[in-house]
Each structure stands twice: as structure tokens, then as C-alpha cells.
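## Example pair
The file below holds two records. Each record gives the amino-acid sequence first, followed by its C-alpha cell line.
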Amino acid sequence: MKIDQLNQLIDCLEDALPQTQCTKCAYPDCRGYANALASGEVLPNRCPPGGIDGILRLSQILEPIFPHDAFELHPTIDPECGLERPRPVALIDPKACIGCTLCIQACPVDAIVGASKQMHVVLSDWCTGCDLCIPPCPVDCITMIDVTANQTGWDAWSTELADIARARYHARDIRLDREERDNDARLAKKANAKLAVINAENPSSEEAKKEQERKRAIIAAAMARVQQKNHGS
């Protein structure tokens, strides 16, 4: 399969996923699962939020690409990935929340707002019900509340909700990348200032000269790590 065809297939598969970015499929995000599906390495039954309807959608996309017997269509979601269920949203108990920000860091779509040592609030219209905020909470103050009654899978979702979730997921990635680069720039500026001070020193003994070189080496190594990281990204 040509690269363009493969990318089109991945795009179609990703569009058939509800974009919860929940990682229940054992991949880092919906795009990662779509990549694995396009390569034929996994079955289309690993997305609990998509449910049975999601399995059918993915299978219809894959069937013209792979022989039908290349994957066995399971009538239910793979149990190791979870269960199909109504769409939930997270609710934070304001009396128990200690403002640790761990849930904010875990949310893949920036649906939780708050500040350190202040109560956090879930923006329910943006919450994908991914459950990722629950494990890091040290005081167990987050509860998942079903909001779609008996509707499960894609019956509990819509293309509009999926598009919003995907846009917010990508926006978060951009924000995190920008914040990391800004932090690296601040650290580099601080390191350069410290290096200038060290270079201005005029050590009078061999021991002092060795100490000066040691400090230079530490700063140079730190700056090299940052440059290597930025180059790799």
C-alpha cells in the first residue's frame, strides 16, 4: 500500500473513533489505534467508547483492505479494554479536592480547570469520560457520572462531540509543546547568564580553575541535553 493510501486509510479509521483519547485500546491516543488497525496488527474491537457500532464502522473500512479472515469480528468489545457503557463525565467533589492539579495534567482535552491549591472544576461539555483523571487523584474526589441514560457506544456520541474532542486534544498538544519550549528557553537564558558569570571569574589557583571548568562542563552538558531534545522533536 502506498503512503498516501495508507494515510487515507488511517484518517478514515480515526474518523470512525469517538476521539475520547482514553487509551483503553492500549494505544496512546485514537490516532495510534488507527495506525495499528491500518497495519492489521489489532482487531477493531478495542474501543469501548465506540461500542458495537464502532466495531462495525471500523470493520466496514477495513474489509476492502484486508481479507475478511484476517481478523475475527468479535460481537463484543475485547474485555481487556473495558466495557461498552453510557457516556460519563467527571464530577469533582469540591469539599474533598485539595487542588493538586494532577487531574488537570492527566486530562487529554483540557476539560478540567483550576490552579494549585484551589478547587478544580470539570467542563462537562468538553469532558470525554476517558477516566484518566481518576487514577492520579490522591484523595479519590472524582466520580464518573453517566449522562446518556441507556445509550452506549456511538449512540451516546456524535460526530460533533468527536470533532470537538479531537480539536481540543490537538490544541493541548500544541500548548504543552509551546510551554516546554518556553521553559527550555528560560532555562537556556539562565544557563547562559550563569556561564557568563563563570567565564568572568579569574581563578588564582589550580583548584579554583578546576572548579571553574567543572561548572562550565555541567552547564554545557545541560544545554546539550536541551538542544538534543529539541532536535529530536
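Second record, same layout:
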Amino acid sequence: MFAESQENGRGRRGRSWVAPARTSILCSTFWRPDDLNHGRDLFWIAALCGARAIQDVTGLPAGVKWPNDLVISERKVGGVLVEGSFSDGFNGAVVGIGINVCQGSEELPPAPDYPVSSLFIESGRTVSREAVAAALLDHLAVVNATWGCDRNRSFAEWGRLVSTIGQRVRVIDAHRSWEGTAIGVDGTGQLVVADQAGLAVPVSDASSVRALGEVDR
């Protein structure tokens, strides 16, 4: 399902996502994976497909700011939200993907933590929403059809797109705030951060992770 505008959208950790009419890709799809483990893959699969679609249509080097922001040169152009019950009895999830396509700088909301942009601004030319939407659906369909046999290759591709890896970051979770260096992702998609003692700590996507120097969220 696609929407033309969004006034009260929700992003990760309760943040809002606003999109004026006919400026963005606002896509929601329902997934019913074969098992719970596949269900937990949805957030990185959606981000990978969004990045692929942007690259196909614009040629721009789209990446992922862990866990779910689509970025170009560390400026946010999109995001992913997955909502479902990932426990016993899991039977599906809604995957929302938003991409800023046509906005000029005056149509973008103030950046709450790091710069926000659009495909128009980053490419310097008009970008077809229809072309981005078609490319996104194509990639989602391919991943859905090849999930079982191609998971490892797709996961490795997503890992290469995670721009957070190599950065000094601050992690804020339910118990503490601490600093370290993002060194990779584990097999479930969690970010792995080396703390000040050099211990590799997997970080859940329920935590807030920001590069040092960003505004606190």
C-alpha cells in the first residue's frame, strides 16, 4: 500500500515522520515469514531494499545508518519501521518504508539529531517517485522469493551498507549510557560495539545509538 502524504506518521522510538503530498515514497507491506527467525530479519531486509532502489534510480551511494535509517553522505533520506509481535505465536508484521524523493530544503522538517535530505537535493535533479516505488517493489519481491536460499548473501550486502561501522558512538539503553566503537553486526543484525575495555558488546535495536558529535536524541 502506498500513501500520498503523511501528517502523523510514526518512526522508531516514537519519532514522527511528516511528508507533504506527492513528495515521498510512503510504502506499507504485510509480511508473513515462514518462521520467527525470518521475522526478525525484516528490519534489515527493508533497509537493504530501500537502499537498492535508491541506487538503481539515482546512482547515488545510499547506505544505512544502523539500524533503520537510509542515508546518503550521512544525511537521512528515508527510514524503516517494522511492527509485529516477535514472540510465540508470531504470524506477521507490517513493514513501513519512507523515502524523501521530491522535497526541496524548505519542505523538510528541522533535523532533530542529524541532517535530513531528499533524493532531489542529493542528486540535483528531478527524481520519479514512480520509478523509486517500482524499484522498491521489485527488490522486495525478489528478496521475498529468495529468502530461504539467499539470506546470507543479502545479509552480507546489508552489512556492507551500514555506515555506522567504524564510527565512535554513544549507546543509550535501559540501564546506562556508554561510548565505544562500532565494529560490525552479528548474525541477527545487532550492532556490535567495542566498549572502552575492548569488549565486543551486541547492541539491541531497542537502544539508541548515535555517532559522537550528534545532538542527543
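Notes on the second record: The mean pLDDT is 88. The two ends are 30 Å apart (CA to CA).
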